[in-house]
C-alpha cells in the first residue's frame, strides 16, 4: 500500500487520474488532494475538484494551492479544457469541504504526519511542490517518489518545445527535477501513446454513473483535442497514477533532467543527460513506452469498481 498525495489542476485528464486513484484503495492510500492554478485559475480548478469529489462521494481532504507560478503570470488552457477547466458534464449542487490550510502547508502537514514515506503525484504546474521542497526541506526524507506528468524529451505541446505544465512554471519544474528526489516523469514521450480511442469513449455511454461522467468528460476532451491534430485522446495525467499501479506496463530510461527557464523560444523545454556512466546523477525515470491496451484496461477496471459502489 502506497501513501499518496495528488497535486492537480482539474482538468479532464486530472479528473481521470483522481478517479483511478480512488478506485484502488487496496493499493493507494490517498491522503489528500491539493489544487494548483494551471488548466484554469485556482478558483476554477478548485471548484472542479470539489464537484468531482462530491460526485464521487469521496472522503479525501482537499486544499487549494498557489494561484500563480513562482515568477511568471499564469497561463491557462481553455482551448483544451474549456472555460470552466473541466467542461462537458453538468454537476448538480453537491458541496465538498475545503481545508483552511494553504496547499503547501497542507502537503507539509500530511507528509510529516504520515507513517512511512509518501509518493507525490503531480499533475499540473509544479509550483506547490517547488515551494514545499524549498520552504520545508525536511519533507524530502519522507518523500519516496514524485510521479509527475510534465515535459517531453523530443517535443512540446503548448509550444513546439515545451509541454504545458512545465512551460507554465519552468522555475518550479527545475527546482523539482534538481531536488535530488527520485522522480518518475510521464512526459509527452509516453503520454501521447496513452490514448483512449473514440470507440472506447463511446462504449462508456450509459454504462454506469461514473462511466457516464467519464464519457461526458472525454467527449468534450476528444472534441477539443481535434484542433491539435488528435483523433484519439491522450490521457496524460492518468499515466502518473497508472505507473504507481502497474509499473510493468511502462518502459523508461534514467536521466538527469533540466528545464530551460529563459524567456526564449525554448522556455519550459525539458532536456536530459541520458549518458550511461554509472557515476552520473540520474534521478529521473523518463517513461517512454506504455502498453496502451493495459493502460485503458486499468481505467475500465476502475470504472467497473466505482460504478458498482
Ligand atoms: C498537461 O497539461 C494539462 O492541460 C493536462 O491536464 C496535463 O496535465 C498535458 O500537457
Ligand atoms: Ca493536469
UniProtKB/TrEMBL annotation:
Question: Mind telling me which SUPFAM superfamilies this protein's record contains?
Answer: Nucleoside hydrolase
Q: Does the record's keyword annotation contain Hydrolase?
A: yes
Q: Name one GO biological process term.
A: purine nucleoside catabolic process
Residues in Inosine/uridine-preferring nucleoside hydrolase domain copies: 4-297
- Supply one GO molecular-function term: purine nucleosidase activity
On the tree of life, the source organism's domain of life is Bacteria
What are the annotated GO cellular component locations? Answer: cytosol
Q: Which Pfam families match?
A: IU_nuc_hydro (PF01156)
UniProtKB keywords: Glycosidase, Hydrolase
Gene3D superfamilies, per this entry? Ribonucleoside hydrolase-like
Q: Does the keyword Acyltransferase apply?
A: no
Q: What is this protein called?
A: Nucleoside hydrolase
